[in-house]
Amino acid sequence: MGGVRYGMPVGGPLQAIGPLAKAIEDRGFDSVWTTETTSNPFIQAALASQATSRVRIGTAIALAFPRSPGITAMTAVDVDELSGGRFALGLGPQVKRVNEQRFSTPFEHPAPKMREYALAVRAFWGGYFGQEPRFQGRFYQVTMAPWPRMPPPVRPAVPILFAAVNRRMLQAAGEVADGVIGHPLTSPRYIREVVLPSIAEGAAKAGRPPADVELVQTVLISMSGDRELARREVAQQIGFYATTRTYEPILALHGFEGVVPELRRAYADRDMDRLASLVTEEMAETYALYGTADEVVEKAKRFDGLAGELLLGGPWWRVDPGRLLENHLAILEAFGR
């Protein structure tokens, strides 16, 4: 497995977060990540940090725009203290519909706004160490220091990683973030031709080497002796993602953009069988790793040299809870050291 680092997500009932995180650490993985789908990712990260002692704990991802930079900055420092300096702040813009219709948050100019967000968070952190914040941007301002913290934060700053898919967000991450969390709807070709060059462009603008920007690449995995079951699970997830406009460039790079209107019609009609059937085996092979454990471990080698860390997660959309756990345990066993 070479020098690639491996991480895994945790989720589900809050009472399960600690034991799941501990099991991931015990199997030799390098990191544990929490998501913002049904639960607050910072509460999950706090639980994971208390159950572990070695692994990095990160949010992959926490939504940025529904929270002010100051609230996020304070929360990140809290989790970093609980973890003993092991926390990584993964932030993402999410998509327009989720921001506006679920969280009553304006969605505007996401890449420039995320760039500012990171700078505002760091300005807030500087206030803990005697720096008077003077950040005034187009979208955010931080001009008043936080209350003194006793004890002071564990570190002057927590690493900030952006969830980034398209060129402008990747460039923003290359300019101001410590890393990128790659979306699970991806391919090695997309990483080579779009992700890494875009990060490098942003880094060059900031006058720093691209190597300063870590890539944590999420990988979509379904393991089962029943290969058709595994294929269907990843097909459902790919079809769900592909209905979102943000991800169209990933499909277009491989010539799959023509299926998008049909996928959207199937989703609007709640015809999930059709949605899954529209995702061909070629699409599934392009964007996911599925099959037996041996097959998946071999296929994972296609990411060698492209990312510093692989975040290994399974499909979750319309997947039976029993299968979610079965797949999680299979990944844990196959990739554990």
Précis, in short:
Helices cover 47% and strands 16% of the residues.
- Can you give the mean pLDDT? 96
- Helix % is 40-55%
Q: State the low-pLDDT regions, or none.
A: none
Q: What structural class results from the helix and strand content?
A: alpha/beta
The radius of gyration over CA amounts to 20 Å
Distance between the termini: 9 Å
User: The biggest beta sheet, please?
Assistant: 8 strands, parallel, barrel
> Approximately how much beta-strand content do the residues carry?
15-25%
Strand order of the largest sheet: 1-2-3-5-8-9-10-12
Order of helices and strands: EHEHEEHEHHEEEHEHEHHHHHEHEH
Supply the number of helical segments: 14
The global form is globular
List how many beta strands DSSP finds: 12
What would you note in describing this structure?
It contains 14 helices and twelve strands. With 337 residues, it is α/β, with parallel strands linked by helices. Helix 10 packs antiparallel against helix 11. The radius of gyration is 20 Å and the shape is globular.
